[in-house]
Amino acid sequence: MTKNIEDYYAPWVKGIPMYISEHIELAWRKPELHRMMSNENPLPPSEKVLEAMFKYAKMTNRYPDQGLVVRSKIAELNNVDGPQNVMIGNGSSEVYDNIFRMFIQPGDEVIQHTPCFGIYGLRGTLLGAKMVSVPMIYEDHLLKFDHKGLMNAITDKTKIIVIPNPNNPSGNYMDPEHFIPFAETGIPLIVDEAYVEYAGLGKSQVQLTKKYKNVLITRTLSKAYGLAGMRFGYTIGHEDVIKQIAGSLLPWNVGTIPMWAALAAFEDQEGLAERVKFNNDAVDYISESLSVIPGFHVMPSKANYILFDCGETGKTGAEVLAYAETKGIILRGESKKYGSDGWFRVTIGSKEENELFVNTVLEFFGVKK
Ligand SMILES: Cc1ncc(COP(=O)(O)O)c(C=O)c1O
Question: Mind listing the pLDDT tens digit for each residue in 163-189?
Fold first, then answer.
């Protein structure tokens, strides 16, 4: 008897939907809206990056190579031995796919610290892993890393521990000394440094990869470098581990244009500094402007987004989002947590958008400038 197609799917993938980001779909459909929801960079690519894109566009009749030049540049910037320590992908999301594939079998456990970026759960679930979510601690109106909670969550099924640093959406860093005990366990530890450039590479845990073979650092050009639509990310680790993980790469996974434009972006450190300064000034402006609202809590951020909890004002995050929408601003909602439904997040926009956002929120809460 013939079986149904459903009987042939791997049991753990059944019903998994395509990932669609509704707010990004909306923003592309209505370009007049202010995209303050997806941790993008509001500044367009620098001239140097655009020049590289045009130059290499003319050579796209050829297959790309394995990116030795850009991988060497990444190694140099991060003070590791060479391209053998670096693997590249279409955004760090793809890099997560490669790493997870090489470790996870159905039934294995992946530890994440919530609230956090969704890709770990999406990839882990696709591979049949059980996601073990350890909530951050909410104390003094701040979300704090629970390094003890993360450690207590380890079992003999743990295959990966992933710690975003800084965390998305809270914007803060874990104390550097708290990474060592995780590195010492020998369990694959991924430190997601998607936003590290906003605070500077001095905040990176990349040096751990020299001592601990189980530590991998992931990065992206989507944030401070401002190239989210180009799709370029990478991981840095011990050469043996990089070599093994690279076994899961699709041939020619990173195209010629992103590869060489990424090199131009890494070489354009002035362009990066300009973007970082613009962002960090805007974070200060928004944080200071909104902290005057009674009962409105602002999480100090070292990234390109800021998390708020307005639960004590008597309003909900959803109400703020709805009001902002009337002004054409798309923000990011957050689920109810720690007894509050006042959470929401903003991504830094252009100067005008940041002012519009601040004025909109002040107006919503009836606070005069
Ligand atoms: C913590 C974190 N890691 C990784 C990413 C993924 O970035 P990409 O796939 O664009 O490199 C994001 C995007 O928002 C993020 O917030």
Answer: 999 999 999 999 999 999 999 999 999
